[in-house]
Amino acid sequence: MKALAAAAAVPVVGAARGPLPAIRLVVLDVGGTIIEDRGDLPEALRGAMSHHGVTVSLAEINQWRGASKREIVRHFVKEEKLADEIYREFTANLIAIYRGVPPIAGVEEAFRALRDGGLLLAANTGFDRPITNSIFQRLGWEKYFACTICSDDVTQGRPSPFMIFHAMEAARVNNVAEVAAVGDTPLDLQAGTNAGARAVIGVLSGIGTRERLRSEPHTQILGSVADLPNYLLKNGRRPTATPANPAPPA
Fold it and tell me: How many CA atoms lie within 13 A of 104 on its CB side?
């Protein structure tokens, strides 16, 4: 309980000051946030599209990082049957690739510390269910998470807030003031802000640079999820961040 009381000091993005409940749920992105991003995903997308005669650059794909992967394909490929064929090939290739991709250093220890501190964990991701299950089953991470919410669980992916809302529903957390949203891309931070999450936290373990993440409304920017227990469970008062006044450099 002492640790959870400390968590109540984490500020709200875009909310008024005042007494707030403790954070209960931490919603974590997957690729680049808890598992390494080695650039495999955009290359797998580009390769699958190229194999079917669709030319898209890595730079164009990277503008969509954090979004639903199916939505990315449909953005570039308007013909539904072709888009489905490309997405199936991409999914099979990515599952094979992610069999060898390691977690971000220190994340499993962070999961244990957060759970020991009384917090619930949820994952939300632009991956679909088969890709997500292959990652979590390989790493044995199901035991740490109250739920995993995938892009195919919602009608709209990031920056819409619906994956975060589904995570709240699955974890039985009713109040967005009890939620911290964590991710490595601008779309992750936008989704957290659109959800009204109590804390919107960027991490530098993926593709997002400090400069780019700082341009989005946020509460804090950390090196990685390994830094979350210290921030959420042990920190003192921090400056409040608002959409018009992002937090100062972390």
Answer: 25
Dihedral (CA of 44, 45, 50, 56) sign:
negative
Is the pLDDT at 1 greater than 50, yes or no?
Answer: no
- CATH architecture, domain 40-98: Orthogonal Bundle (1.10)
- In contact, 241 and 221? CB cutoff 8 Å: no
Q: What is the per-residue pLDDT across 167-196, written as a single tens digit (0 to 9) for each?
A: 999 999 999 999 999 999 999 999 999 999
User: Is 2-36+103-234 in CATH node 3.30.70.580?
Assistant: no
Instruction: Give the start-to-end residue ranges of the domains of the chain.
Output: 2-36+103-234, 40-98
Q: Which of 14-28, 88-102, 112-126, 163-177 bottoms out in mean pLDDT, i.e. has the lowest? A: 14-28
Burial of 124 (0-12, 13-18, 19+ CB in 10 A): buried
The pTM assigned to this predicted structure is 0.80
Give the SS3 label for residue 237.
Answer: coil
For 82, other C-beta atoms within 10 Å of its C-beta total 15
